[in-house]
Amino acid sequence: MRWAITSTFLWALAQAAEQIDPKIYARLFMNNKPMFDRMSTAVLQKLPKSGKVLDLASGPGEPSVTLATMEPNAHIICTDSQAAMTEKAKTRASAAGITNIGFEVTSADDLAKWNDGNFDAVTMSFGLMFVANKAKSLHEIYRVLKPGGFAYVSAKVSHHEGLLRCLARRLWFSAACLDADALAADHDGHRCG
Question: Is 24 among the domain residues?
Fold first, then answer.
């Protein structure tokens, strides 16, 4: 069960991110590259040309860097609650020559920096489990999405699936299980496969 091991590594790494060699952290983090690629592909299939994406809890820049690389016309905002993680993301984006990406230090449960209906898409990869107020985070995601916008949130399903579905129904957008480890939400009605 590779996903569970990777998820555990990410949790441990996030707890001690300031103490881990950035190269080691990035290498371990990139073990999730197939999931980042799948999420990025799914986002880009629905994203309008020159669309705006808010990536929450991005750590050292995923899926932000992948999205920005795959679609140079999109504008990506890469966030993390830790300034050191945002700096790692900036370094990775700079090394890749990416210019369609901005960076902010913010918690996923406080998106007050952005107006209602500001983004075409919101992504969060394995970040929800570290957010203090998960319900507020999901409400904020809904608030900053444009009408018809969509969110892709990956989380440890066995722990957060029920919470996500319950909150999604309350916020009038749906949760769908993807690959048993990624949850997608959009505004077209409840479905779960």
Answer: no
List the structure tokens of 83.
């300034």
Who's near 5: CB < 8 A, 6+ residues apart?
none
Task: Note whether residue 7 is domain-resident.
Answer: no
Q: Cα–Cα distance between 125 and 153 in angstroms, integer? A: 6
The answer to whether 80 touches 107, Cβ cutoff 8 Å, is no
Please check whether residue 23 lies inside any domain of the structure: no
- The model's pLDDT over 165-174, given as tens digits with 9 standing for 90+, comes to 555 544 434 3
Q: What is the CA radius of gyration of the chain?
A: 15
Q: How many domains does the chain have?
A: 1
Could you tell me the CATH number of the domain that includes residue 145?
A: 3.40.50.150
If DSSP codes are grouped into helix, strand and coil, which group holds residue 144?
A: helix
Three-class secondary structure of residue 150 per DSSP: strand
Q: Which two tokens stand for residue 85?
A: 């993680």
DSSP string, 75-120: EEEEEESSHHHHHHHHHHHHHTT--SEEEEE--TT--TTS-TT-EE
Q: Report the C-alpha gap between 33 and 31 in whole angstroms.
A: 6
- Collapsing DSSP to helix, strand or coil, 180 comes out as coil
For the stretch 71-87, pLDDT in tens is 999 999 999 999 998 99
CA–CA distance, 21 with 26 (Å, rounded to integer): 9
